Amino acid sequence: EIASIHGMRVWDSRGNPTIEVEVTLADGSTGRAIAPAGASRGTREAVDLRDGGTALRGMGVQKALDGIARHVAPALRGLDGLDQGAVDAALIDADASALKENLGGNAMVATSLAVLHAAADHAGKPLWRHVADSYDRAPKLPLPEIQIFGGGAHAGGRVDIQDFMIMVPGAASFDEVMEITNEVYFAAGDIMAQRGKLAGVADEGGWWPQFDSNEEALETLVAAIEKAGEKPGDRVVISLDIAASEFGTDGKYRLSLEDRDLDSAGMVDMLGRWIDSYPIASIEDPLGEDDPKGMAEFTRRFGGRVQIIGDDYLVTNADLVREAATQGACNAALIKVNQAGTVSESIACFDAAVKQGWGAIVSARSGETEDVSISHLSTGLGCGQLKVGSFTRSERMVKWNECLRIQRDLGKDSFVQGAPLAQTWWG
Ligand code: PGA
Ligand code: ZN
């Protein structure tokens, strides 16, 4: 039984205010979680409730905290904290809006996750084990997607493409993924330094994208993989998040860095050339969230060769997954709990993706904290993949390190390896 719910203002990796919620059950079990925040958000995702005005650059969370005290706590007190579905349903009821704007997705996600943590504490289990047991899943350590260069909204638009990442489906363990990623990350930094292009890091800790074209980032990434002693496309493959909604609407895409405009077909052709030329195994949001025709065309042409992830396109929404499947758009879903607003809706989206035979990737946001819930969710659901940003900065490393702790309990054999990408370029 839920005894108390308290919200508190804490601060995220960008120095912005965010919300931590602590839930206590009648038996004294407790759970705590912190809301992350996105910078390149989909228009259909749950919105954060912010105070606006000039103080804290409008990012204050007092209204959201008031909502927790006035509406969330009374609505949830007395409910069975082990019944996540009922708790989340009560949260959704209390908010009663389409995009969670009344209570705020930030207040809701912190509360929903904190309840899950409290239930795990009650069961005396680590969160990943509690998730696996209560949702009847086979836990597995995920294959990470790790950012080497940041771009797009995470680098002041320095390049158009948002994430240049690697995956190491050929690694034998999660531990080995970390080792190989370390080599590639620093090889990339060395190359940037040699070329006189080292200029610090972007928002999620990937190297700042000091490039003359978007493709130069890809070439440099391949060079870094080679410099790290790996054959590109062998154990290590490339994963991109285009985040096309950030530079395209109505089927028109503006590549500012290269001073050129592409229509939807032009984007599909360009990305297709990249898939032909580089060992790319996965592409996220290749077209805009308002471009279902482009997304379907891209999936028709390349869905057999690469994983095509919907992030802004699907916003962790089970209905949008089913709609996309009908359109023939995407073959994988990004799962961001704060896009949905609750744990239950996120798991429903994950299940909808699995039902379509799709891949799924649990993901962090660009604004993060020490919260490690997603490492546990990804493992406990046996989801297969995890994306949390780069290989530096503690708000990122804390998630990878938590997976290493889970590995100690679960065993190295529980790593999924390349299975999620088996049908792709790499397989
Ligand atoms: P975010 O974007 O800045 O909204 O968290 C991350 C992503 O696009 O995957
Ligand atoms: Zn994305």
TrEMBL record:
Keyword Magnesium in record: yes
Principal location listed in the UniProt entry: cytoplasm
Pathway: Carbohydrate degradation; glycolysis; pyruvate from D-glyceraldehyde 3-phosphate: step 4/5
Name of the protein this chain belongs to: Enolase
Gene: eno
EC id: 4.2.1.11
Localization, UniProt: Cytoplasm; Secreted; Cell surface
Organism: Sulfitobacter mediterraneus
Keywords: Cytoplasm, Glycolysis, Lyase, Magnesium, Metal-binding, Pyruvate, Secreted
Binding site for (2R)-2-phosphoglycerate: Q162, K336, R365, S366, K387
Keyword Transit peptide: no
Described function: Catalyzes the reversible conversion of 2-phosphoglycerate (2-PG) into phosphoenolpyruvate (PEP). It is essential for the degradation of carbohydrates via glycolysis.
